[in-house]
Amino acid sequence: MNRKSSKMPKITQKIVEKKTVRRRKRSIPAKKSSEPEYMVQVPDPKMVRKDILESLREMIIFMQSYEKFRKIQNEKVSALKQLQSQVKELNSLIDVKLRGLLPKGNMHAVKEIHVVKSKTKVPEVKSVESEVVKPKSELDELESQLKDIESQLHGLK
Amino acid sequence: MDRMPVFVKVEEYENVLSLVKTIHKRLDEAKETLQKVNELKNEEDHQLEIWHNTLGEVEKKINFITNSLNEPQKF
């Protein structure tokens, strides 16, 4: 019993110390301004309070939906990538395999040149300029392929 | 010369048929993906419209608060 009684006061002292520390932190006096304090009456305070809360709620909903929006965007990007690869595959299937398997048409080279020359001269100049300015990219290659196919189509007509 | 008949080897003809089948399959897949992209775009547009409306509502409320703070009640 004696031992217990000797220990007890120490514990209580510690608790008291902790409590006093907390009180000290809380009891920091606020700076008093030297200017006089004026009051402004807010008309319709209930409505103002309600509007603030509703605005806050809507902003939170907005932020939540932003996450959803980002998810949709990511899905769209992945779907677009998938579409790009599918179109590339289709292009290779049609351009390489199918054209390779089918017999080549007997195109008239002279006609093709005539068709190309009969077109307006301005775009040709533009294409030459663009070739000079930019290095050949995938887009340029596709453009040249397109021109080639178009000329072949004109030849068929 | 233009109306001369064109012949294809039977083996190649079969290959062409199977290839055309594959192309059809790939086309359907691409169509489905495009449809998915379109749906996602519509979802995005819908979401943007909702945001537009929400911001409009919040703006109205903030304007009301600003007005009531700028025009205190007179006695």
Q: How would you sum up this structure, described in words?
A:
The complex is a heterodimer of chains A (157) and B (75). Helices cover 79% and strands 0% of the residues of chain A. Chain A has helices spanning 2-26, 45-101, 109-118, 121-133, 138-156. The relative contact order of chain A is 0.04. Chain B has one helix and no strands. Chain B has one helix spanning 10-70. Chain B is rod-shaped and about 100 Å long. At the A-B interface, helix 2 of A face helix 1 of B.
* Number of helical elements of chain B: 1
Q: Strand content of the residues of chain A, in percent?
A: under 5%
The string of secondary-structure elements of chain B, in order, is H
Terminal CA distance of chain B: 104 Å
Say how many strands of chain B there are: 0
Mean pLDDT of chain B: 87
Shape of chain B: rod-shaped
Name the quaternary structure: heterodimer
Short description:
By secondary structure, chain A is mainly α. Chain A is built from five helices and no strands.
Any key phrases for this structure?
heterodimer; A: 157 residues; mainly alpha; 2 domains; 5 helices; disordered N terminus; B: 75 residues; 1 helix; rod-shaped
